[in-house]
Specification:
11 helices; alpha+beta; Rossmann fold; OB fold (Dihydrolipoamide Acetyltransferase, E2P); 20 strands; six-stranded mixed beta sheet
Length: 367
Amino acid sequence: MSFLKVSGLVKHFDEVVAVDGLDLDVEKGEFFALLGPSASGKTTSFRTICGIETPDAGTIELDGADRTHATVRERGIAMVFQTFALYPHLTIRENLAFPLREQRMDRKDIEIRIGEVAELLKLTHTLERKPGTASGGEQQRIAIGRALIRRPELLLLDEPLTNLDAKLRHDTRAEFKRIHRERGITIVFATPDELEALTMGQRIGVLREGRMVQVGTPDELYEAPDNDYVAGMVGSPQMNLLAATRKGSDTVPSVALPFGEFGGGAWQGALARFPVGEALTFGIRPHEIMPVAASSDFDGPTLEAEVHLTEPLGDVVILDLLAGDARLKMVLPEEQAMAYSVGDRLTCGFDLATTHVFAKETGTAIR
């Protein structure tokens, strides 16, 4: 049974629908990532789940009990916001103690909890300081500590890494995973960053305009996206998505691209349902394209391309290619990419088994 079950959740503000029939199931002890761009409904979903906002429709269940209209205190949920939301006039110790004092907990028990959380988050040496003297990473840990000190059943993290620099983001990601491993707490982590979602979430839910469009493990979303939206969200660099047309015969369909016509992928059988001339979207990951000596040397489809731009990323290089009217990316190890410069022409090959085809009108994967 799901620990958190959200069914048909709707929340709107005047004419703006922020959450539109959201369904979400999170297992007990799971680290679940909620991936979506700005204005996709992540924050409103969280605020409604924890009781800050009242839903216009739908239900929220926690551990099998209906909590749709329960108070914030009755839900046993803690939330860490994108902004640290610390009290600047209080010490770090007092910031951590604040939610427990609101619950009128005994002072001795409060000090025990502060010690536990401070040790867990490596804040013991900072307790008598004010938040303004702490680094960004320390302030983030204080905000997490103030949520954890309540010992919540569910922790909601709303883009908590957005205000941190690259190194702190990396360190804090590791911190979240350590806390999850050591405490076994159920965590839902909202982020617009697909790398954060892929590296942290045991499962990922992709959110679009207040609706869940796909839920799965990182591998499932990467290898089998249900639609072109998920295909474009998951993977770095994102999947090459190219305009295509349904060609071939009624029984042996093919896909026409700016650089050729191909058939034989896993999508071929399902593509027979679509009429000749139907507009499609063809998808292939940049990592699945490779340079070859010549078309005759490669057992698979090939394309002729020109190097338009190179993007060095340390141990790998992204090559922007022009192939006919299409522009696509290819990723190569640095040593291999050194052989190519802007303006060079090359032959590339790919495996149709790793490609995807989507219906242009709906964006749905054809398979």
